[in-house]
TrEMBL record:
Database matches in InterPro entries: AAA+_ATPase, ABC_transporter-like_ATP-bd, P-loop_NTPase
UniProt family annotation: Belongs to the ABC transporter superfamily.
Domain (ABC transporter) ranges: 4-232
Source domain of life: Bacteria
Keyword Nucleotide-binding: yes
Organism: Bariatricus massiliensis
CDD domains, alphabetized: ABC_DR_subfamily_A
Protein name in UniProt: ABC transporter ATP-binding protein
Keywords: ATP-binding, Nucleotide-binding, Transport
Sample GO molecular function, one term: ATP binding
Cross-referenced SMART domains: AAA (SM00382)
Length: 269
């Protein structure tokens, strides 16, 4: 089943056509990376999926039901983490989840059970701090817990990792990865390494259209080159080259690869 289908979506702000002719779909249970540079129209698209912004043209369906602007019927399927989630700073995480659960009309036993599960999922169990003292990463994690409170089939996250350091990003990606197979996840980003880590499908938004989309593995194969990369420790390099030479195997290209700064940072932290 399709979690989301968008067809011929258009949106202008004044004279600026932000979304020109947007069509794509997201199968249920996938983790979909919605990629686009700053200002590409990712948030605008997400707001239209949530019925918070009126499209000029086009059709949006969530689990087969049409989204209408101003109506939140289809949002019963959906959890949403905005790019900058707002909280009451004087509350603790569990107080905040209780409030959200009460507003959503959940029974108090259900709120207690779901909150405990979700705080565990996002690594905030036993955190007695008030949200005002949280780091950005902790706020994003609490935001994910809140978005999942109603057990949505579709979780939409707007740039959940963009403002975080590599450790905070990894924590968020690990949480989203754990949802794989249970909840369909759409997350927008311009950080391609994040997409590579957890997404099985992608859509690249540019000039108001999807310019590349599909399954990650299929795309990689389609654009793959016939190339093999092997890693050896530095002290083994001469040995490896000697073996290759003895076998009359000449590499087309040899390069000493420096570790990425991100890898180094994660290792030392
Ligand atoms: N309410 C609005 N009125 C006028 N212009 C808007 C409005 N909302 C968004 N825009 C413009 O539409 C374009 C797309 O914005 P949007 O926030 O959807 O992009 P984005 O891909 O989410 O970018 P970012 O990564 O910076 O959040 C931008 O040029 C933005 O300035």
């Amino acid at each position: 089943m399709e979690a989301l289908r968008i067809e011929g979506l258009k949106k202008k702000f004044g004279e600026t056509e932000v979304i020109r002719e947007l069509s794509f779909s997201v199968p249920e249970h996938s983790v979909f990376g919605f990629i686009g540079k700053n200002g590409a129209g990712k948030t605008t698209t997400m707001k239209m999926i949530l019925g918070l912004l009126k499209p000029d043209a086009g059709k949006i369906q969530v689990f087969g039901e049409s989204v209408s602007y101003g109506e939140t019927k289809t949002n019963r399927f959906t959890g949403y983490l905005p790019d900058v989630p707002e909280f009451y700073s004087y509350m603790t995480a569990s107080e905040y989840l209780r409030l959200c659960g009460e507003i959503a009309g959940l029974a108090s036993g259900e709120i207690r059970r779901r909150s405990a599960e979700l705080l565990e999922l996002v690594g905030l169990t036993d955190n007695k701090k008030r949200v005002g003292g949280y780091s950005r990463g902790m706020k994003q994690r609490l935001g994910i817990a809140q978005a999942l409170l109603g057990n949505p089939r579709l979780l939409i996250c707007d740039e959940p990792t963009s403002a975080l350091d590599p450790v905070g990003r990894k924590e968020i990606l690990d949480i989203l990865f754990k949802l794989k197979g249970r909840t369909t996840v759409i997350f927008s980003t311009h950080i391609l390494t994040d997409v590579e880590r957890i997404c099985d499908r992608v859509g690249v938004l540019s000039e108001g259209r999807i310019v590349l989309s599909g399954e990650m593995e299929a795309l990689k194969k389609q654009y793959a080159q016939d190339k093999v990369m092997m890693e050896f420790p530095k002290e083994k390099q001469e040995e490896v080259l000697a073996v290759l030479k003895a076998q009359h195997l000449e590499p087309l290209h040899t390069e000493v690869v420096e570790p990425s700064l991100e890898k180094l940072f994660l290792e030392v932290i």
